[in-house]
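Q: My labmate handed me this sequence with no annotations at all. I'd like to see what the chain might look like in three dimensions before we decide whether it's worth expressing. Could you predict it?
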Amino acid sequence: TITLVEKLRGGLVAITIANPSDKAVSVPFTISVSGGLAQTSVWEFGRPESGSDTLDHDGIALRVLFNGDTPQSLDLAAGAKKTLSAAFAAGTPDEAAAACANLLRDPEGALAATRSAWEKRADDLFARLPRLESDNAALVRWYNRSLVHLLTNRWELPGLVLNPYYSTGSVKGGCVCDYLWNFGEVWELLPLYDPTAMRAHIAQFLRGDITKHFAFNAVTGEAFGPWYPVNQEKIIGLIYYYVKVTGDTAFLDEKVGEKTVLDWAVSNALHGDDLARPVALIDYGPSNSHLELRRGLPYNHVMPDLNGRRVMNYLRAAELREAIGKPMPGLRERAAELGALLKRDLWDADLRWFRFRNEKGEPDTRYTVQLFKLFNSPVLDREEEAGLLSHLNGQEFLSEYGLHSLAKQDPAYDPVDIDNGGPGICTGFVPQIMERLYNCGRAETADDLLRRVLWWGYRLPYWGDSIVADKEDYRRDTPLQCTIDGMCGAQAVIFGLFGVAPQFDGSIAASPHLPPFAQYMALRGL
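A: Here is what I predict for the chain of 526 residues:
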């Protein structure tokens, strides 16, 4: 077992070797330690590299000590077993050596204290969030496994820009920065669990220019990277659901820079728009950043899913203003006009799908899962909803173990592009689409998606950025192996499967749906 010890930059490796035979044995034993060490304030998508192949670097040291001399062999009597503990720590040479020595004085005590600390975190989690009960154990495991990401991606370190800090990634060191498109996926669940931290993270994103950048650095708070065109939907949704879940309308009047939070929500809803002119579809340019497809067949320029999301951006901004008695005439009308324009210009009744317009202004088609995020939005009329729904079938998007991010017949489909262009999908997308389907009355389709992904709860200890759909596997060519939007699963259970819907007037509606693979379910302690 390998354990990172509570409140220490180090931990313990416990190696237990057993002899089940009826004869004494001598087991050859070798331990080697290698690797680099450095200090960095730069955390982006990948894991930082040390730039040094030694274990001592610039006054920092890694020390490893064993309880006793490192053995050449272990002598085990018949039926006996022995445990060897190795302690490791990082810091100055003296600090690291002292930490290792302290750990080895009582390794069992250090492990017990660490386990106790994590049990207290789990107890605190369920003191704030409901427990799911069901006769279907796989459903409960899926819900609980989703909540793991609230613990693995929460940092309590004074050296970070926020404390507590919720990172996009954690395990294996990838993505300890915060990407808005990941953090924005958990807009309903996080204000239930940690509303104070959510306010702080929203403000931190607004301090950077999210019309130019997609993330901020965990150590400096500095914004970095290019603009992702989903930024505006994410920041508006974070503000909208924070206020709706908590009732904290005073947050809308809080100033971040030169604007109030409410002004930021409205300005992001209007990003790329000109109120002096009739509403128009936005051309998002030639960037491949939305789907990052790899086969030279792009999805860019006038994209229907992004233009469709603008409808909800207008409506959420309008609701926020109305919630504090400051209505903004025209926002709702503009949303309706945009929805009508989207159908008139991009809907193909024969394909039962939205086209996009390429760099030449010509209609083109990408069968991307992103369009399913328009479910439960007034942008879709009955014809469009039924049309999109008809593509959720085994020949196009579905496999036994989940949902494909690009339809199998699309010429841009790439067997190795798991997250957005092939036989798998970004982890948060499946529960998000499920939640939308439950809330627009398409429970049968949502149930089918949930059934296909229940294996996530018992085959994966935590969920990385993408999960495979045509077999039980995860995307392996990514450093983001533990993603914050993994908690979208529990979010979909609470706000989709159980239909919990807080309102701006303080009331709460609920419309629970029992899936066919369960005979009983309940949320306790909501």
